[in-house]
Amino acid sequence: MKLIRLAALMGLAALSASAADRKIVLVAGKPSHPPGMHEFRAGCLLLQKALGTVPGVSAVVYSNGWPSTSGALDGADAVIIYADGGNGNPAIQGDHKKIVGDLAAKGVGLGFMHYGVEIPAQNGGPEFLEWIGGYYEDRYSVNPMWSPSYEKFPNHPITRGVKPFSNNDEWYFNIRLREDQSGLTRILVATPSDQVRKGPYVWPKGPYPHVVEASGRAETLMWAYERPKGGRGFGFTGGHTHANWGDAGQRKVVLNAMLWVAKAEVPKEGVEFNPSGEDLKANLDPKKK
Questions:
Q1: pLDDT band at 223 (very low <50, low <70, confident <90, very high)
Q2: How far apart are CA 265 and CA 22, in angstroms?
Q3: Which residue, 18, 99, 195, 242, shows the most beta carbons closer than 10 Å to its own?
Q4: Where are the domains of the chain?
Q5: Both ends of the chain: CA-CA distance in Å?
Q6: What is the CATH T-level fold of the domain 22-281, as seen in this structure?
Q7: What's 97-127 look like in SS3?
Q8: Residue percentage of the chain with pLDDT more than 70
Q9: pTM strictly above 0.90
Q10: How far is it, in rounded angstroms, from Cα 105 to Cα 209?
């Protein structure tokens, strides 16, 4: 009788562990930009390797844009898109907007990184506000190369174990955020200098009067959002330069965010993963210099 009971308990434990497993799908965009920039595939594969160290989490990477495999997003607890955006954003091609919207309605977590947070205001903008709480809007937001200093962080699972950091990258700001900001948490915040506000921006060069006039205002460069009807999202504006995945602060805050939107438990000290130099060089897209 005791053996039967023990077997039953072990079976329940196995079912419980299985139910706790979380599947994260990373969609890596097609190659773009010069070597070392917009290395979506290499970045996603590096982050996949890091997520593989977290018990109960599985990560799948689809390269070269939206997955062509039928059922690729089935069973996903979170979908992360790290790709070129704007009119070419994978989330609005063909029927993808409906697919992503259906995932959001089911409570699936969503994350968009770097250029992937840019979406046309009239085609995807309203959806991004509902899915992740904000987006990069052309001629409203800006994309200079600069070195924001992240000194303080909110009390949130995404910031667990994250220490102050700074790196030079194409950090977007003046993001279009929801007017109703309940459920929205500003994860990475920094104050651009007046010189940064005046540009030049990467494209268009600027400057924009409304950005210059906001002198001294702290800007949100990464945010997290809890949808009223369930589900979570985040936007991360860095990630232009592949080498910056070697930055412990950037790496940890993004890995934590992926776990959080998938509703996986974020470790007390965040995701610990220290890539080697070879890890950072692996899987780079073949590009002409």
A1: very high
A2: 10
A3: 242
A4: 22-281
A5: 70
A6: Rossmann fold (3.40.50)
A7: HHHHHHHHHCCCEEEEEHHHHECCCCCCHHH
A8: 93
A9: yes
A10: 38
